[in-house]
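ingest -> validate -> predict -> emit
validate: passed (alphabet ok, no gaps, 279 aa)
predict: started
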Amino acid sequence: MRRWSFPGARPGVAGAVLVVVWLAGAGAGARAQDLTPVEGFQIVHQGSGLTLHDEWLILPFTHADRYHGRNTEVVFQISAKQALAGSHFYFAYTQISYWQAYNADGSAPFRDTNYRPAAFYRTPARPFRGGQVGADAGFEHESNGQRELLSRSWNQIYAAPHYQRDRLLLRLKLRWRIPEKAKETPLSAKGDDNPDITDYLGSADLHLYYRWHNERQIHLLVRGNPGTGRGYASLNLSQPLPHEQRAWLVVTLSHGYGESLLDYDRKVSRAGIGFMLAR
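emit:
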């Protein structure tokens, strides 16, 4: 099994951290009235107490071509964040589950669930070129809670600058994986469960959000490792449901490596339809 390698990751994240520090200092002096009014996206929202974070969705029907389990399953995600003592420090939690609800012969198990707690600092937003900029810097853990050969996990230090203008949001998440010791044997509880995961997921995620005046929204995610030629892209298209203020119909399409931790090294294509409860 190959040992983990991540050439060039440290300088990339170090540069992004410098951007975060600059934004923190510059944003501290920016007045709220100087910021251009823009549509809200919860992934960059700043607020006290418990608030939404990433998208909430439930997809009662999805179909994928290649992974452990039946091809048709239910997928759902929940996510929230908590501001700590009214500061710009946050604790966040995101969970996505893959449920083999239609696999009656196999007792309809949950095929995989990925748990992603994080702690980060969010800079105050500041005006920039007709919009506003900000950034996050923090620590994130992700694992699937399974045992032995099915266990997957990794820890990351990340920086995520963003630019928001009117109904457009661009967010770049740069990460450096914290190295782990190799396992003594494949069945050892201690050690790296997935030493080559960055070969498939790379060092950055690029998110593009755009929301039209009729409240339809597109969310495009692209990531990859140019050194290995492996990558992943997903597209969420959502539009308001009739007579609903906080629910949207969503269609999802995705292709590539790293859809879930269990199958990070499998190329999976998925299409799904369902409901988005927060975005």
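Helices lie at 9-28, 197-201.
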